[in-house]
């Protein structure tokens, strides 16, 4: 591909999503409803969890639906979109092995799959990535 790449454009990418097809359950899409900070107002708001696939824990509904981060086709699609957007940096959130945030599961095994999908986005696994990957440890 012959176009500019913008290294001041960063995309934050999270590996914590799961779907019943790949993970036997929704992961993170069914996040707990965040309560209002004012207890008086919070009392009148809904409580519980989001109920995918229609109601997901996101302000925007993904074009691919509530996907799994373990789905290689999803990873490849996302990396191709990042490449096409000419974003210069992919910031990959990552927890140490065996550790996950409160609503998820460990994802350290996905890091190699993301790297492979990112290389595939160039159309040739020998061609260097046009965007950089930064791994952000939590």
TrEMBL record:
Keywords: Golgi apparatus, Hydrolase, Membrane, Signal-anchor, Transmembrane, Transmembrane helix. Gene3D superfamilies: Glycosidases (3.20.20.80). GO terms for cellular component: Golgi membrane. This is Glycoprotein endo-alpha-1,2-mannosidase-like protein. Transmembrane segments: none annotated. InterPro entries: Glyco_Hydrolase_99. Pfam families: Glyco_hydro_99 (PF16317). The keyword Thylakoid does not apply. Belongs to the glycosyl hydrolase 99 family. It is a single-pass type II membrane protein. It comes from the Eukaryota. It is found in: Golgi apparatus membrane. One of its GO terms (molecular function) is alpha-mannosidase activity.
């Amino acid at each position: 591909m012959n176009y500019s790449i913008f290294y001041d454009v960063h995309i934050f990418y999270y590996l914590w999503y799961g779907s019943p097809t790949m993970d036997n359950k929704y992961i993170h899409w069914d996040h707990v409803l965040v309560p209002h900070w004012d207890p008086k107002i919070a009392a009148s708001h809904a409580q519980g969890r989001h109920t995918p696939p229609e109601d997901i824990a996101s302000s925007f509904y993904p074009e691919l639906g509530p996907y799994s981060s373990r789905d290689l086709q999803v990873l490849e699609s996302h990396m191709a979109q990042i490449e096409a957007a000419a974003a210069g940096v992919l910031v990959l959130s990552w927890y140490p092995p065996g550790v996950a945030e409160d609503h998820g599961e460990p994802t350290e095994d996905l890091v190699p799959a993301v790297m492979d999908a990112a290389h595939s986005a160039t159309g040739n696994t020998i061609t260097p990535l046009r965007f950089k990957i930064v791994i952000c440890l939590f």
